[in-house]
Specification:
The chain has eleven helices and 16 strands. By secondary structure, the protein is an alpha/beta fold. The protein has a single domain (53-365), classed as Metal-dependent hydrolases (TIM Barrel). The chain has a seven-stranded mixed sheet with strand order 3-2-1-4-14-15-16. It has a four-stranded parallel sheet with strand order 8-11-12-13. It has a three-stranded parallel sheet with strand order 5-6-7. Strand 15 and strand 16 form a beta hairpin. The protein binds N-carbamoyl-L-aspartate and zinc ion (2 copies). The site of N-carbamoyl-L-aspartate has 12 residues, from loops. Zn(2+) 1 binds at residues 58, 60, 150, 303.
Length: 424
């Protein structure tokens, strides 16, 4: 039976919101702007905005191996509640998808419990240990969406270079967490002013940018498609900008928290403000926003990284890096950037749905006839206070608890099925 969404507004090519309808048949968009087919089940869009389901190329679902932090079920339910319908799962699980066997095992888990589309990464090195290289061609053949050792930087240039060469041969994308271990200095937040006030060890900006600089040169030499994770510093933005100018095939993502927060916002030694890379200085935040606006940075990714309350309880030094992101990303960005006129709604939707799909060569992120019916219905006028205790994620680790934001997803549709509906 067909599903018919009526009373809905969609962005047109000029970025204007126009009234329309969407007809869904067999999980696909069958028509846009037509009248209701007979016998169709009707969804009342209530005049809300319909976006292509968001695409997040950088998430951590923790299963297998760390189910106390998150499972594929809780993580994908959280994604659906945030309006995400396609997510790419990073490989820092136990086991790591570093072999066909492990990747197939993880694909089986996804099949059993995911409520949205989960595309698993393959790792660049065995066990993400940075030593033995994985077989990129084989893992790609078995469905690895791209390749990364996220969680750690690949320390040896030769390892990265050789993996980039292998990736280039089969058209795989190398996705890098850039961090030079010799420049971390035991840091738990940005090396600047605020870490000194709090008496905490700092991670200098160059810890990230130096590895991006290395990698863009390696990507050029290898002819590889290279994507930079969670860019956080102004020097990183400049390096990516220069690399693009030089014709190197590089793309980059930025996380909502790095666009919204800076080190001086950190109120105290509270691990809900600890993530990797850390919140940087005000000028860095500014450079990230400019980087998005001028096309240096291609998309937004949450880096959803759940950890338990126990792990995050007791200050930054002992806690793991990472914050959750799915359920706050759109409302926060909409409120802080679209409502204030810094971004347009179309830009935000491009960066959260269309662009990430495009740069990862995925056939999603657009509302068009024939595409999978992955849709997020958003009430742009609804205002709510963020309450971490309401998250569908197991993770409560967010610095945004108690923030007010507008623009909440009220329904998420994945392949024609409702996978999230706002609780009344
Ligand atoms: N971003 C984080 O702070 N943490 C991530 C790892 C990562 O993305 O590097 C995690 O897996 O917890
Ligand atoms: Zn990372
Ligand atoms: Zn990550």
């Amino acid at each position: 039976m067909a599903t018919f969404i009526e009373n809905i507004k969609m962005l047109n090519d000029h970025g204007e919101l126009v009234k329309t309808t969407i007809t869904i048949e067999q999980g696909k968009i069958a028509a846009i702007g037509e009248s209701k087919p007979e016998n169709a089940e009707v969804i009342d869009g209530k005049g809300n905005f319909v976006s292509p389901g968001f695409v997040d190329v950088h998430v951590h679902l923790r299963e297998p191996g760390f189910e106390h932090k998150e499972t594929i079920e809780t993580g994908t339910r959280s994604a659906a509640r945030g309006g995400f319908t396609t997510i790419c799962a990073m490989p820092n699980t136990k086991p790591v998808p570093d072999s066909v066997e492990n990747l197939e095992y993880i694909k089986g888990l996804i099949k059993n419990s995911a409520v949205v589309r989960v595309l698993p990464y393959g790792s660049l090195t065995v066990d993400e240990a940075g030593e033995k290289r994985t077989n990129i061609a084989e893992l790609k053949e078995h469905g690895a969406v791209a390749f990364s050792d996220d969680g750690v930087g690949v320390q040896l240039a030769a390892t990265m270079y050789e993996q980039m060469q292998d990736a280039a041969k089969v058209g795989a994308i190398v996705v890098a967490h850039c961090e030079d271990n010799s420049l971390i200095y035991g840091g738990v937040m940005h090396e600047g002013v605020r870490n000194k006030q709090l008496g905490l060890p700092g991670i200098p900006s160059v810890c990230e940018s130096v590895q991006i600089a290395r990698d863009v040169l390696l990507a050029e030499a290898a002819g590889a498609r290279y994507h930079v994770c969670h860019v956080s510093t102004k020097e990183s933005v400049r390096t990516v900008r220069d690399a693009k100018k030089a014709g190197i095939r590089v793309t980059a993502e930025v996380c909502p928290h790095h666009l919204l927060l800076e080190d001086m916002d950190i109120p105290s030694d509270d691990a809900n403000w600890k993530m990797n890379p850390p919140l940087r200085a005000s000028e860095d935040k500014k450079a990230l926003i400019e980087g998005l606006l001028d096309g240096t940075i291609d998309c937004i990714a949450t880096d959803h990284a759940p950890h338990t309350t126990e792990e995050k309880c007791c200050g930054m030094v002992g806690a793991p890096f990472g914050i959750v992101g799915f359920e706050t990303a759109f409302p926060l960005l909409y409120t802080k950037f679209v409502e204030t006129g810094i971004f347009t709604l179309k830009q935000l939707v491009d960066w959260m749905a269309t662009k990430p799909a495009e740069i990862f060569e995925l056939p999603y992120g657009k509302i068009e006839v024939g595409a999978p019916a992955d849709l997020t219905i958003i009430d742009l006028n609804k205002e709510k206070t963020i309450d971490a205790n309401e998250f569908y994620s197991k993770g409560r680790n967010t610095p945004f608890n108690g923030w007010k934001a507008k623009g909440w997803p009220v329904m998420t549709i994945f392949e024609g099925n409702v996978v999230y509906k706002e609780e009344e």
